[in-house]
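Worked problem 6 (solution included).
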Amino acid sequence: MYASQDPEHRVSELQLNSELQNAHFELISAHCAAYQLRLHYSADDLARFGRNDLLRKSSEAASSLHEFYASIQSKLPAPEPAVATSHAVPTPEQIAQAIDWLCTYLQQQRDAYFSASTPLTEQQKALLWPFFAPQLLDTVRILELRGERVPVPGFFAQARALGFEPPEITHMDSLTFLDVIVFNQELSARALFHALVHSVQIQVLGLRRYTELWINSFIRSRTHFTVPLEVHAFSLASRFLRPAPERFSVEDQIRRWVADGRY
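Solution. The predicted structure is:
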């Protein structure tokens, strides 16, 4: 690497962090896929019925990744002491309140950002048409924030006051407000595809059912990227980014998960 004052060094840092972020998203996708396996099958069942070659290769890859990232972690500064989080179980009334909050928030943010957002470009539509319905691509609007991020919802403070820790939305690449997608960071093909999956999920499920599934899954898992709605978006985005991606209908994939009760 070059000296920090060297412009070439700054460029190399940008490239490094771009590649690091891509690797991070791939790891989240792999984590999501493994999480789904853990939900559906025991370790004994996987060892007994799974293909030995796949299990060995997966285990070797996971071990290698653990060693690699552990070697990096050992060189990082010590993290700040973690804040204790609550594991209280919300009441049905509190869950219903959270669903109402999220429904209202998504609709309000959609209306707030709509006028500043723009339609997809023809180039973006050409990239995405093998996977999404033309009507969706013609309807969805996008906004790339610069120098700011989507503010934390006001109801998060109310949730914390009740003893519950909401997801950290400021770290998310984008947020899908029905048919308006707002990007906290630079728009990328992966982030756009992921956000569009959520837009289709909302269309297929309806806003109320989408929020019910999201809230209830988050309460169980306590992490946003293990919510099945997120798992599916991550996995479909990874398929889209393969070197030679196959054409598939995102809507068909979502309807299949709905029929199978996987959300």
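Discussion: Residues 7-73 form one domain.
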